[in-house]
């Protein structure tokens, strides 16, 4: 009887924890939340937001490709026994992908300056960092 009670309790806890997990957002839902948060936090006008977000999401796609290159190199290094020279290439390729991503940030920052002040761009950068911190809050250990 005690074992049955323990099993039922365990199943109940598993069911509750499984149902408590939030479903993943679609790409569009994520972008909508991101756009809403950043617009509000950075104080963008509707006109500024209409010009900013198409460029911003274009930048995010390009940076995703840079990150994809870096992760491919990391997987390559983890899955294979590489020579020292090959590990050297992997390390350099990862750094080059990060540099490419940073260069994209600079390029797009210059594009934003065509219609936004530097102060507003700074506020946008802070809003983006805040958005990512907010996303991570539920996943932090207590």
In short:
The protein is mainly α and 142 residues long.
Structure report:
This protein is mainly alpha-helical. It contains five helices and no strands. The chain has helices spanning 2-20, 27-42, 46-79, 84-112, 118-136. Helix 3 (46-79) runs antiparallel to helix 4 (84-112). Residues 1-13 and 15-19 have low confidence and may be disordered.
Write the layout of secondary structure elements.
Elements: H1 2-20, H2 27-42, H3 46-79, H4 84-112, H5 118-136
In N-to-C order, the SSE pattern is HHHHH
Rg computed from alpha carbons, rounded to a whole number of angstroms: 22 Å
Mean pLDDT over all positions: 85
Strand content: under 5%
* Spans of at least 5 consecutive residues with low confidence: 1-13, 15-19
Please provide the count of β strands: 0
Shape: globular
Structural class computed from helices and strand pairing:
mainly alpha
Ends apart, CA distance between termini: 35 Å
Number of helices: 5
Key features?
142 residues; mainly alpha; disordered N terminus
């Amino acid at each position: 009887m005690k074992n049955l009670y323990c099993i039922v309790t365990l199943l109940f806890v598993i069911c509750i924890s499984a149902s408590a997990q939030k479903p993943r957002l679609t790409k569009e839902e994520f972008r909508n939340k991101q756009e809403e948060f950043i617009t509000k936090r950075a104080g963008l006008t509707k006109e500024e937001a209409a010009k900013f977000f198409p460029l911003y999401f274009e930048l995010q796609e390009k940076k995703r490709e840079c990150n994809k290159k870096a992760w491919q190199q990391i997987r390559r290094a983890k899955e294979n026994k590489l020579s020292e020279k090959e590990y050297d290439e992997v390390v350099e390729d990862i750094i080059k992908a990060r540099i490419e991503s940073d260069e994209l940030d600079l390029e797009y920052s210059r594009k934003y300056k065509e219609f936004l002040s530097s102060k507003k761009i700074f506020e946008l950068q802070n809003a983006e960092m805040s958005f990512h911190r907010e996303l991570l809050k539920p996943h932090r250990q207590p």
